[in-house]
Oxidoreductase
Amino acid sequence: MIVGAGVAGLSAAHRLTSQGVTVAVLEAAPCVGGRMSTEKIDGFRLDRIGQLLSTAYPELRLTPGLDGLVLRPFAPGVLLHGDGRHHRVEAPAGARSARGALRAVRALASAPRGVPGPGLMAASRRAAFRVLPGAGQTTVSRVARGAAPLGGAVDQARLGAALTRLAHVPVERLLARPELPAGHALAARGLPARTIDGFLRPLLAALLCDPALTTSSRCADLALRAFAGGRLCVPEGGAEALPELLARTLPAGTVHTGVRVTSVATTSVTTAEHGELRCRAVLLATDARAAAQLLPGLRVPDFHPVTVVHHTTDDPPRTGSALLLDADRGGPVAHTAVISEVDPSRAPSGRALISSTVLGPPPTDLETAVRTHLARLYGTPTHRWETLAVHHTREAVPAMPAPHDLRRPVRLLAGLYVCGDHRDTSTVQGALHSARRATTAILKDLGAAGSMHRADPTPTAQAA
């Protein structure tokens, strides 16, 4: 029995059913997805949190049921706003040395903008999911070729070399590195302060949803590794597309929504609607707080609040499909994009959707502050933009402060397991990976002796 129909619970169900285990997934909400939800308003698809994904996430390729997932990538790298101008920064894919990184940085400075390299297309052909090119224009107005905010050519080469090395470091080596808060660790990496403050800090804040960069440096390295080795992207059709695909490709009758679990044991769950349901094992795949309510004693982490503001206009900024960061950090918006240029399915024809993310507690004058900041970031008036929705999620992303255990136990005892992004990294990759670890433990226990208990439960729900 799996409690919770977020991406962790649904991917666990796929792994178990593929091994012949009968599974029932119970979800208290009326729909699947958990925090990966999308609101639909007048033809717009508006993510409530909209965490950034990467094509480099291994579990997007390895998770059963995601073969049909379509990812829409942002323009390569990111677009930085600093000193009143836009600066494009791209990871030097394929460079394998400092010398190669220097050549790559120089090539990026002179190459036509918005043209994806052959490496991405080759990777997309190998992946289980599909990566489609951005549909909107990718030319960016007023893109500066000057040094700010990264420094000169040598500073850029050093950054390129650092990202290249990181992209090829095995994960286990990253996890063995000394651990500090990410903000402190950046200063020890040998990069110029201008590069750190103007690029790495705003980038990591966007990737980790942590503006103060208190996150473990190991988690930050994993995020930078994914950025250097892939493309930032979003699921086509909204964040909910990923869990809905997982649910849709499970055997009919596996997922049961509107069922609230009130207690769990190793051989049963009790629900408010149907009483006790017997089973051979229980996997808790809820968020951290709900899991702790069912199993007192489980750790509840702190959380990063996230607010997403959605605007529409018929005259969009000319930033194409770029993810725009503020190198100056001069307002509440951490990152923003004309998301309909990345994924046209998110807005009706003739309208543009601009989605902007505010990290941390939002200001009291949120609407005014965001509009003012966006006008400066995009270099265009925003007073005529229509606000579609403001989504504030107080417990959006579990915090990962140093020291952080990236492999929290998923097996509590024989017959009782837990998974979710709070047991791994606070990303979709972490949620899917924790489900992999949990199902490996379940299958090992089930296979050890046929039954993990002295007597098999009654056959009312022979499920894992």
User: Anything to note?
Assistant: Residues 94-127, 135-142, 449-464 have pLDDT under 50 and may be disordered. The longest helix spans residues 428-449. The radius of gyration is 23 Å. The domain at 2-37+241-301+405-449 is CATH 3.50.50.60 (FAD/NAD(P)-binding domain).
